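Retro notes, structure queue

What went well: the backlog is down to a handful. What didn't: a couple of records were mislabeled last round, so from now on we paste the full input next to the output in the thread. Example, using DNA alkylation repair protein from Leucobacter insecticola:
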Amino acid sequence: MPLADELLGQNGAIALVEILERADHHTSFAHARLVAAEIDSLTLSERARAIARGILADIDGDRDRLSRVIRNALEDETFAGFTLWPLGLAASWSAIEAGTDQAFDNGMELMRELTPRMSSEFSVRPLLLHNLSRGLRHMTEWTGDPDWNVRRLASEGSRPLLPWGERLPVLVTDPSPTLPILNALYDDPEESVRRSVANHLNDHSRTHPELTVLTVRGWQRSGGEHVARTSRHALRTLVKRGDPGALELLGFPPVSVTVSPLTLSTKRVPAGGAVQFSAEVQNTGDEPARMVIDYVLSFPGARGGTRSKVFKIAERALDPGDGTVVTASHSFRPITTRKYYPGSYALALQINGVTQEPAEFTVEEN
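Corresponding output:
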């Protein structure tokens, strides 16, 4: 597993054990060492969890000792990277096992201390799943931390749909508890923090589009040096969906245009081939038209039925009466994230969220 080996391989896991043993001369991390020698067949997250369980077995449930070991280990300024993931998980699980508010708060504090060396966004998830409201109180305080890594953790760690992380179902249902965090950080001076905020709100946009638009509208009213870029990134899913509220916030209101029938280079595309397509767009309104021009591909799904996906083409501006020819192509070469099945397909332009008349064609079998 090349990625897992690169981020948390056997050598890195053994190095972690050696760092812990130097941090606490009285503890033999034998369980963690045994796990470290046998992780090659595990995925990255499985490795982190297995090593964390080994660490907890070695400290025999002594949460205070684990905290001391972690803080002693962090005195080595070179101790950083994915080898800290198991340590963060062990701290989270230990705090939850203790079952007290004080232990929980200490666990959150360890997340804050660890995150400058390796983001605690994955390690903090068990704590949030255990007590979301208490965890978010800590994270809201972190929005004022002088370290941008901690401010980023406030947003990234509480994302409802964090990639590689456990979902936070309560926040998928009700995004409102994290809005104070996003509102505090949307114009943060650090780009990594702003990008996390945008990704976080984009998570919410998948199930709460109206709330997302209202939130961005509030940012724009409050203003800020970076608000335009953060807004655009936060609304990207809604823009692809053609959400009129999101498009209008970004300066793309409804337009009066005519679109010629879509012309295809072929009606039968060989497997792995491509199709070129074009159409003329004319502004028939009395005002200049700013347009986001995308195309929608409809295609057979792996389990039957028809699916669709939106792809970007360009942004164009047309004065009243002016026209432009929109040209693009789509390749059907298989890629790791998408497989194309033979059958009936269709392409259609989408202009400021309005889908135009589709043109149908066939992708042939290999």
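Agreed that this is the format going forward. Reviewer comment attached to the example: The mean pLDDT is 95.
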